[in-house]
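User: Can you model how SAJ sits in this protein?
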Amino acid sequence: DTVAVIGLGYIGLPTAAVLAQAGKTVIGVDVAQATVEAINAGTVPFVEEGLATVVAGTVAQGKLSAQTETPQADAYIVSVPTPFKGDHDADLSYIEAAAKGIAPQLSGGELVVLESTAPPGATEFMAEVILGLRPELTMEPNLPNSLYFSHAPERVLPGRIMVEMLENDRIIGGLSTEAAELNRDLYASFCTGELLLTDARTAEMAKLTENAFRDVNIAFANELSLIAERQGIDVWELIELANHHPRVNILQPGPGVGGHCIAVDPWFIVSADRENAKLIAAARGVNDSKPEAVLAKVLERAERLKHPTIAALGLAFKANIDDLRESPSKDIAVALTERLDEGTVLVVEPNIDALPREFDGRGNVELAALEDAVERADIVLLLVDHDPFRTLDRETLQEKVVIDTKGLWR
Ligand code: SAJ
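Assistant: Here's the modeled complex, given as structure tokens:
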């Protein structure tokens, strides 16, 4: 019962940890020597609630270890990045590299699961790479030389990964029924949610569909926010009122959509079928245009003042996290420092200790404490709905120009 998990990032490491906790012997594989060393020392290379304890415990019990080479195992779980290449096409080269590492270790009977979010056909692609290198093995089930390929996309929410990994329902799509069943039996060892079997292409598309659904719905709210602004209407009141209708449930507008999933995955659908994916592509466009609209509004207000001080509240991609990657709020704050003719930007981000490197070399920006920044500011720009901003004393905002992109202070 040995499982190899290839790629020990935000999904791979938690997956390896819960499998080890469930009693499997788990070997994690990563190209980063520092990650491997951290795990073998029983520590974690990034922060995720509850992960450190499970990693420390399973490493101490000898159930979890890490290495840079792909080992022999009964099951393989591939959890590597799928970045963009070209015009938002999926770059499958990390999946290909993982498959090439796995291929020489196989002898027949193994399960190979793709966990990475990927476009329709990616599991087939992974299988073709492996079978291309090992033509004596087959996808045909129930033979001594059979291999079993499956896709099990994760849907955990960062910050709640260790809970959702155990409790969420999982979609499991096999290249054969037997492969899906083997994958189900493995995941049943740690997952108490429902395990829903289908084929690999449907599973791939299901994951992309969930995030595209959310993106399209956020785009609807963001488009409304632009229309409402021109009409002199408060968009949050508008949405609240419309949502009283029993069949209307509009999401919340904001400065844009960030993170590594919702702003990325819909493109994989677009790239698979540009002709038909019109609404999904348009939604991406609306959400990606929102930071520029916020910026234009702030700059317009700033131009009316001499040496304006602007407090930019929040850099993270959503509330109460320290994750600044793919964050529209950070992009807005950085662009502000570039495009402001004169004046100062006071960045407030309670979840970090130093400004990220994108601000390097800028003389007109400093990281400030909330109360200090608001007191000094002419313009207060709210970009993230972090709790400390929610509870800010509103009295301190009087006399200020307030641009509230999250509707937090209505
Ligand atoms: N946002 C809005 N308005 C809203 C809701 C969200 O502007 O009404 C923005 C957020 O501020 C943020 C972005 O959208 O910038 C995404 O945040 P999120 O909390 O909606 O989602 P993520 O990216 O943290 O995680 C999503 C989840 N997918 C869905 O809810 C369908 C999660 O379950 C997935 O596992 C994850 O993507 C993933 O890994 O794919």
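A couple of observations from the model: The mean pLDDT is 97. The radius of gyration is 24 Å.
User: Helpful, thanks.
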